[in-house]
Amino acid sequence: MVAKEGREKRNFGLVNEKGEEVGTFTGAQPRDAALKVANRGMASIVLREKGTKKLHYFVGKRELVAVPKNAPAWIQAAAKENKGKIYKANVEKIGTAQLKYVKLDRNDKSLFKIPKKDGKKKAKK
Question: Cys bridge to 89: 7, 16, 39, 111, which one at CB 3.0-4.6 A?
Answer without folding.
Answer: 39
